[in-house]
Write a structure and sequence with these properties.
- The protein is 43% helix and 17% strand.
- The protein starts with 6 loop residues before the first strand and ends with a helix.
- A five-stranded parallel beta sheet has the order 3-2-1-4-5, sandwiched between helices.
- The protein has six helices and five strands; from the N terminus they run E-H-E-H-H-E-H-E-H-E-H.
- The protein has one domain: Rossmann fold, CATH 3.40.50.
- The radius of gyration is 16 Å and the shape is globular.
- By secondary structure, the protein is an alpha/beta fold.
Length: 151
């Protein structure tokens, strides 16, 4: 029997780590309550290329290590090295009570809801809101760097 400590699962690419990532992970952990354990799945390079069309700037193992170094994160693991993100195997491995998804990931939330309803799972899905400050994203940071470099 598992202890009362809730496990929260979050996932992402985490390329060029920024405050939006930290905010998302902090809010994800809060969703599990006071003593929650936050496990973060970092996307493999091959999945990033398939989903976003470009390679990440930072290699997968370095992204995983940086995410795991964050105070709020209890464990960071690399996702499966498959052609498609295999959420079922991740869920079976981590056994979360809660899965936190980003405000802009309705597609992943819908896929998870279908997967969990088909299996009769009681895992809660929580959507993490957008950071209230100036909009942050890795794509936006990359664009700003290019714009400044081209001046």
């Amino acid at each position: 029997m598992r202890s009362e400590r809730k496990i929260v699962l979050a996932a992402g690419t985490f390329d060029l780590l920024h405050y939006g990532h930290v905010y998302h992970l902090t809010e994800a952990k809060k969703a599990g309550g006071e003593d929650a354990k936050l496990v973060v799945v970092v996307a493999r390079d091959s999945i990033v290329v398939k989903r976003k069309g470009t390679e990440p700037i930072v290699p997968e193992e370095q992204r995983r290590a940086v995410v795991e170094a964050l105070k709020v994160v209890d464990e960071a693991i690399l996702g499966p090295g498959l052609e498609e993100m295999d959420m079922q195997s991740i869920i079976e491995s981590v056994r979360p009570d809660i899965i936190a998804v980003g405000y802009d990931r309705r597609d992943i939330e819908d896929d998870l809801r279908r997967l969990l309803s088909n299996s009769g799972s009681r895992i809660q899905i929580v959507r993490i809101g957008r950071f209230g400050g100036k909009e942050l994203s890795t794509s936006r940071i990359k664009r700003r760097i290019l714009e400044r470099h081209q001046r």
